[in-house]
Amino acid sequence: MTSNADTPITPDDRARLDPVFMQVILDAQAQAQQTQPAQSGNLAAMFHRETVTDALQGCAMLIAGWNQGRVDEAGLTRAAKALRALDLTDLAGRLENLRNIAAPQD
């Protein structure tokens, strides 16, 4: 289902910007998977796995939306929130910039 807040992407923009979009997504996925729990113990490991899963599912939602010609806002929010929880704040910001990937550049 497409949210009203999703950013539409034209087929031309999608073709032109696909390498950039996918590089950000692949980087987010790889870095999320390389993180370690902030503390030791089973509970910390469980929450860490859940947060990594949220980041990966958000990225999957973004890819699915991209394939449908939009930047999925729910996926973007989910992935960025998880990346921030994993202390990947800069990467979360890069991901959020995908909202404006097709905006005209000055």
UniProtKB/TrEMBL annotation:
UniProt protein name: Uncharacterized protein
Species the sequence originates in: Deinococcus indicus
Origin: domain of life: Bacteria
